[in-house]
Design a protein that fits this description.
The structure holds two protein chains of two kinds. Chain A is mainly α. In chain A, 72% of the residues lie in helices and 1% in strands. Chain A is globular, with a radius of gyration of 23 Å. In chain B, strand 10 (235-238), helix 9 and strand 11 form a beta-alpha-beta unit.
Chain lengths: 345, 416
């Protein structure tokens, strides 16, 4: 056999590889594989979720168990619903800091309307509607100005929380109407499957439908990719942005009502712990933080993944400092795995 | 295009203006712009929006807005949020405006020291409630090192609830700890004193501990997670958020002893037979601190001790009792119709007998203030000073306290 001929004309050929470092070889492999891996990002996250269930054995001798799965579903539900909104906003190229205040406003008004005699469903709808006003104002300002979305959402939600503090006038606590509490107390389980599983499925279906099947969803992708190009393509950017922030807030509001049902009550700090996880799962789920690229199914997978990891780490008999460090490290690993699956932007 | 953009900004601006106007309208009820001749009193809380903070503030305002106080003083409530820098600058403004009395919930035991010193030098009286400050010129009114009313030797929330849990378990069993906000001095005092008790019982095994942030919702989620991993636990020791702990246990179909603080839901469950102990931080301290401050203004700086300890509430499955109306009668200690997260300890038979559910829920000025009794019996013993002032009094040094309090051996001050 003759030695393999060097062919300088082939840029990605062996000559170049021989001359350059291994990093460029990796880059080449990535470029070649990217179309395949890009499609694998969502299955990769879900595969991690499924792998984590048996792996949780490492954290507790009681795992894996049905209680692990049902807790992941119930606690993951809140993150799934919240991150739908955050995901949509991030897809449009923004970021939404109003999550905690919308959750608090929606829960507060649901509770206060219910305790003044409203039926559960109208009270919840009104509560979510009032909370979503924060999103509507966010959208109106962001669509009409060049202010960065994170500042606008911070300002509007600060005003919203302050108004709520004034309106609640020293009575922050609300009791959930019994109809809401029964969603989570096991009384509505269907053949042993907790009702939160049904809600989770519903959230996935509605969320995916909005992101992939509606004109709004497709326009959001276009705006996130390039607002200018979207304008040229005839997308009505402003109205779309208003809808995105409004719809996102409706998502947070629904989560607020659900959280209130879970705890059968609320105070004004109900949403305080959900902002950063909502951003984390969108990114871990494979979406670009810069917008234009993302998939709600990946976000849902990441929400369940982060939840199950939280449960696992909670089970370890480590002190809290180490637990938090471990949690951070695992999120980082999940992020890296997600990036490998998606390739470079 | 340019005009449209301007119009957009105009719309945005008008939204903000409208919102601010509504805000001003809503908060108008709780503030009084004093006239020049009256002395100024400030109530300064840190964060707001949870039941405990708002109830304590409502009680303090119910005292301060009573007719006899209003005759001589104007009162203003200021919310500083959870940032120490903001509280420092707020207090600075209060001093500058000629405050006579500042009753406050301190965010940090140390960060406020310089500004408090500055205020004391300007003749301002400072009374901290619930949390404590190390600056010696300020008065502390807190339950943190407090002892049970029925036995003054049984001190510290952490130690007494831990002992209660050990007794309920017969000294044997696996337990979980639902702690407060990580890194706060209060959480550390509670935890250390509880740990000192648990460590005396080799049969007690702590399988996991987690932080519920003194928040019902977070406590419920964290407990649900921990229960998934440890379905075989025999009891839970909890700081505030124990109502969430009980709800998580109920969702998992488990009924094991729980010790925690004073939420209405927890008391209600105790009264229905749930095994446990309800103790912890009373919001009554807000109202009591305001009365203490007013007494200092009236009777001078030495009319009360600088370190005031409020009794530690202690309610068990046997003693939990529903109140018939909105008043505290016959030793009742919770309300059938209050919200789950309502913190029940808004009343003190000696220090705040005028209190009611209504006063805690909304500012309802008391018609007549009941004068404080001789406060010397509420003075914190010197051997517990280290927990609130960061050092021992003159003539005392740090060391294990072996007499006068159970469990023996806790860190404290001993006579030099």
């Amino acid at each position: 056999m003759q030695p393999v001929n060097v062919q300088p004309s082939d840029g990605s050929g062996s000559a170049v590889l021989a001359e350059h470092s291994t990093t460029s070889r990796l880059a080449t492999i990535k470029t070649l594989l990217q179309p395949v891996l890009g499609k694998l990002a969502v299955p990769a996250v879900w595969a991690l979720v499924l792998v984590m269930i048996p792996l949780s054995r490492l954290f507790s001798s009681y795992f894996p168990s049905w209680s692990l799965v049902s807790n992941t579903i119930t606690l993951g539900l809140f993150l799934t619903v919240i991150s739908f909104g955050q995901g949509l906003v991030i897809l449009s190229g923004g970021i939404d800091l109003s999550v905690p205040s919308v959750i608090a406003v929606a829960a507060f008004f649901t509770g206060s309307l219910a305790s003044s005699g409203w039926a559960t469903i109208p009270a919840a709808i009104c509560g979510v509607a009032i909370g979503s006003l924060i999103g509507l104002v966010n959208g109106l300002i962001i669509a009409r100005s060049t202010f960065p979305p994170f500042i606008v959402t911070l300002a509007v939600s600060t005003i919203g929380s302050a108004l709520l503090l004034g309106i609640s006038a020293g009575k922050p606590g609300q009791t959930a109407p019994s109809g809401l509490s029964s969603l989570f107390d096991g009384s509505l389980s269907i053949a042993g499957i907790p009702f939160s599983a049904v809600l989770l499925l519903l959230a996935i279906l509605v969320g995916s439908w909005i992101q992939f099947r509606t004109r709004l969803g497709r326009r959001t992708y276009a705006i996130g990719n390039s607002p200018q190009a979207a304008v040229y393509a005839g997308v009505r950017v402003r109205i779309t942005l208003v809808m995105v922030y409004w719809l996102a807030a409706i998502g947070y509001g629904i989560a607020g009502v659900l959280l209130m049902g879970y705890g059968s009550g609320s105070d004004l700090n109900l949403g305080a712990t959900w902002l950063l996880p909502s951003i984390a799962v969108v990114v871990v789920g494979g979406s670009s933080i810069a917008g234009g690229n993302g998939n709600y199914l990946g976000t849902v997978g990441a929400a369940l993944l982060i939840t199950i990891i939280g449960i696992d780490i909670n089970a370890v008999g480590l002190s809290q400092g180490f637990k938090q460090a471990l949690y951070g490290a695992v999120i980082f690993i999940a992020l890296v795995l997600g990036r490998l699956g998606r390739g470079r932007e | 295009m340019r005009i449209r953009k301007r119009k957009g900004l105009l719309i945005a601006a008008s939204f903000v203006t409208a919102a601010s106007l509504v805000l001003a309208g809503c908060s108008g009820g709780s503030t009084n712009t004093g006239n020049g001749s009256k002395g100024k009193i400030y109530l300064n809380l840190s964060y707001s929006g949870n039941n405990w903070q708002d109830q304590a503030a409502n009680l303090a305002m119910s005292v301060a807005e009573s007719p006899e106080v209003q005759a001589n003083y104007s009162v203003q409530k200021v919310i500083s949020g959870s940032d120490p820098q903001k509280q420092i600058s707020d207090i600075q403004s209060m001093i500058a405006s000629g405050a006579k009395l500042i009753v406050f919930y301190p965010i940090s035991p140390t960060a406020l020291n310089p500004v408090i010193k500055q205020g004391c030098d300007a003749g301002v009286t400072f009374v901290a409630y619930d949390g404590t400050v190390e600056e010696p010129c300020a008065y502390n009114v807190s339950y943190i090192t407090g002892a049970r009313a029925d036995n003054p030797e049984q001190a510290f929330f952490g130690a007494q609830t831990a002992q209660g849990l050990v007794d309920l378990l017969g000294g044997q069993g696996k337990i979980m700890l639902n702690r407060g906000v990580a890194g706060t001095s209060t959480d550390i005092v509670h935890y250390d004193s509880a740990k000192a008790v648990f460590d005396q019982y080799p049969g007690i095994q702590i399988v996991t501990e987690y932080y519920g942030n003194w928040d019902s919702s977070v406590s419920q989620q964290e407990t649900a997670k921990a229960l998934a991993a440890h379905p075989d636990i025999d009891g839970v020791w909890s700081e505030l958020g124990e109502d969430g702990v009980v709800k998580a246990l109920q969702a998992a179909g488990m009924k094991v002893p729980v010790t925690g603080e004073d939420t209405n839901y927890f008391r209600k469950m105790l009264s229905q037979g749930w095994p446990g102990v309800s103790s912890g931080s009373p919001p009554a301290s807000g109202g009591i601190a305001m009365k203490v401050g007013l007494k200092i203004l009236a009777d001078g700086p030495n009319s009360v001790p600088h370190d005031i300890e409020i009794n530690l509430p202690y309610v068990t499955t046997d003693t939990a009792k529903a109140c018939p109306g909105s008043e505290f009668v016959d030793g009742c200690n919770f309300f059938t119709n209050a919200a789950d997260q309502f913190v029940t300890e808004v009343f003190d038979p000696a220090l705040l007998p005028e209190s009611s559910y209504t006063a805690a829920m909304q500012v309802a000025p008391f018609d007549k203030l009941v004068p404080l009794p001789d406060m010397s019996s509420y003075a914190q013993p010197e051997w517990r000073r280290i927990y609130t002032r960061g050092s021992c009094d003159a003539g005392w040094k740090e060391g294990p306290v072996t007499t006068g309090q159970v469990p023996p051996g806790l860190d404290g001050c001993v006579q030099a």
